[in-house]
Amino acid sequence: MTSSSINIPLTIIKAFSIWIIFQIAFYWGGAVGPLLPQSMKAIVFGGSLSLFVYFLTKVYLRTDTLTMGDLGMTLSPGSWMRFSLSLVVGMAFFGAFFVAYLLFTPVKIVPILEPNYLNTIFVSLLSFVMLGVMEELVFRGYFMKKLETAIGIRGAIYLTSIAFGLYHGITIDSITGPAIWGLLYAVLAYWSKGLAIPIGFHIGANYIQALFSQKEKWVSGLWNFDVTQQSTLFTIEQVTLMNQLALLTLAIFLVEYYLRKVRPKQEQ
């Protein structure tokens, strides 16, 4: 057995170990969560774990050939602009899924009575900034780039995306939902050679969900969805399936297009 064949499984183990350590910290932090005010839970939880993952990554890099720049974890002059634009695009992109429900299913938007505007607009935005940074640092940072050195980009994207789904729960919904979004975030990280765009896009998608009361574990919303008795072209379940298939198709197309068209040009 050659040294290179031995190094491959060791590299995979090292890549997965940073995710495992994060999961342990995540669940330990969840035990502390109930002690925090609801409005501050995501900010403190996401912020502290983001710092933990950042410094844990630096520890890993002390015995690695990868650098923070290789992981896309360094700021450049255009990082804030890319982040801001991708946040808006992420909100619009996820909003398109909600529009599909409004157009084709018996769903309507209902405003929340006496909403907490400060909490929903500002606190929730800061909350999902912290949570989005945390998740992208873990799954599209060292974990993905280290796996790439052992099994290639395609394998790294798909494996970390599955891990991203399972992190949201060991259920089928985690694979048909978050895991597919993980493919999109991963290819954005590779395409842009950094984390600013996937972080912004990720936060934007979560924030639009929060505004429509889809993230009540962390924050309250401004609007909610209600089901009417009207007859519509499709059911909610049918549109959900179509949205998932459309997202999966788009994500796989972007991954394969990147690998076959974009990456070869970048290497020239």
Automatic annotation (TrEMBL):
<dbReference type="GO" id="GO:0080120">
    <property type="term" value="P:CAAX-box protein maturation"/>
</dbReference>
<keyword id="KW-1133">Transmembrane helix</keyword>
<protein>
    <submittedName>
        <fullName>Type II CAAX endopeptidase family protein</fullName>
    </submittedName>
</protein>
<dbReference type="Pfam" id="PF02517">
    <property type="entry name" value="Rce1-like"/>
</dbReference>
<feature type="transmembrane region" description="Helical">
    <location>
        <begin position="12"/>
        <end position="30"/>
    </location>
</feature>
<dbReference type="InterPro" id="IPR003675">
    <property type="entry name" value="Rce1/LyrA-like_dom"/>
</dbReference>
<feature type="transmembrane region" description="Helical">
    <location>
        <begin position="42"/>
        <end position="61"/>
    </location>
</feature>
<dbReference type="GO" id="GO:0004175">
    <property type="term" value="F:endopeptidase activity"/>
</dbReference>
<keyword id="KW-0472">Membrane</keyword>
<feature type="transmembrane region" description="Helical">
    <location>
        <begin position="241"/>
        <end position="259"/>
    </location>
</feature>
<feature type="transmembrane region" description="Helical">
    <location>
        <begin position="151"/>
        <end position="170"/>
    </location>
</feature>
<feature type="domain" description="CAAX prenyl protease 2/Lysostaphin resistance protein A-like">
    <location>
        <begin position="119"/>
        <end position="208"/>
    </location>
</feature>
<feature type="transmembrane region" description="Helical">
    <location>
        <begin position="116"/>
        <end position="139"/>
    </location>
</feature>
<feature type="transmembrane region" description="Helical">
    <location>
        <begin position="82"/>
        <end position="104"/>
    </location>
</feature>
<keyword id="KW-0812">Transmembrane</keyword>
